[in-house]
Amino acid sequence: MTARAHSFFRQLLAALPFAAAALPSHADCSRDIVVPVSTTGVSVIVSNGTYSGIYPEIFRSLGPRAGCHFTFISVPRARQELLFESGKADLLVPATRTPARDVNGIFVPMVGHRAVLISLQSPRPQITNAQDLLDRRDLRVAIVRGYDYGEAYQAIVRELARQGRLFTEVEPSAIARLLYVGAVDITIMGPTILAGAINRETRVNGMLDRLRLEPIPELPWQQTGVYVSRSSLNPDDRAVLLELLERAAKSNVVMEGFQRYHRPEILAESVRPR
């Protein structure tokens, strides 16, 4: 982890006690809370068996106050989704709110967020909407398997796959490398996610300064945060977790974490207060 990241997490931890002070001291979880995670920007960082980032640090700080212990498991993003859907995971984090996920969990929004088209700077004409992207059949598009930004995103992905232009990877760092060497032309994801991957990937040095961000209307601002399982948790544990997460959301610690870590131009296109 970089010195900047260490400094950021020290500041994050310093802010968390203010949120913890408002938590009820009598609450207790009846068992460990199971949280499968994969590296997602600065929200979650998995490295050599350690778990850090905005959300793991929030859970570690606020959990003891609420009588809850969180057990993290490293899995690919698509596996996170499957475990949550099947009731084998208690939380899905971080996650954009979608109707499909609402079936399996209760959503607690933390920040506003959107996916955009991301490429390297070039003289290529700007892409203005989804149809424009689909019509430019020379452009190869990469996504992370398991990411979901809503129905319009899924429709774009299906059509790109039908056209034979879609590349899928299990983690953002793989996509950063593909963009860097020119193996793909565009990715679709939140800019903070790709920026976090670039900061940790030594093989793409200088890439952050070359990013081109193109919002399109089919991928609007949405809410992102944490899903709490409807099926894996008993009602008391679910209530404790929902209160814990809502308190953290009101403290604005997640937005402050993004602001400390990312450049203003990256945040302006991808993250804002809930």
Which short descriptors sum up this protein?
D-Maltodextrin-Binding Protein, domain 2, globular, 11 helices, alpha/beta, 274 residues, 5-stranded mixed β-sheet, 4-stranded antiparallel β-sheet, 2 domains, single chain, 42% helix
What's the total helix number?
11
Distance between the termini: 28 Å
Strand content: 15-25%
Structural class comes to alpha/beta
> Could you tell me the mean pLDDT?
91
* Biggest sheet descriptor: 5 strands, mixed
Structure summary, number of beta strands = 13
Q: Provide the succession of SSEs.
A: HEEEHEHEHEEHEHEHEHEEHHHE
CATH class wording of the largest domain: Alpha Beta
Helix amount: 40-55%
The CATH topology of the largest domain is: D-Maltodextrin-Binding Protein, domain 2
**Shape category:** globular
* Annotated CATH homologous superfamily of the largest domain: Periplasmic binding protein-like II
The value of Rg in angstroms is 18 Å
Sequence of strands across the biggest β-sheet:
9-8-10-7-11
Unreliable parts? 18-25
In the CATH classification, which architecture of the largest domain applies? 3-Layer(aba) Sandwich
Short note summarizing the structure:
This protein has helices at residues 3-20, 54-66, 77-85, 99-104, 130-135, 151-163, 172-181, 191-200, 235-251, 253-261, 264-268; strands at residues 33-37, 45-47, 50-52, 70-74, 91-96, 105-113, 116-120, 141-144, 166-169, 186-189, 211-214, 222-229, 271-273.
Write structural notes for this entry.
This protein is of the alpha/beta class. It folds into 2 domains: 3-113 and 222-273, Periplasmic binding protein-like II (D-Maltodextrin-Binding Protein, domain 2, 3-Layer(aba) Sandwich), CATH 3.40.190; 116-214, Periplasmic binding protein-like II (D-Maltodextrin-Binding Protein, domain 2). Helix content is 42%, strand content 23%. The protein contains 11 helices and 13 strands. It has a 5-stranded mixed beta sheet with strand order 9-8-10-7-11. Strand 8, helix 6 (151-163) and strand 9 (166-169) form a beta-alpha-beta unit. Helix 2 (54-66) crosses helix 9 (235-251). The protein is globular. The two termini are 28 Å apart.
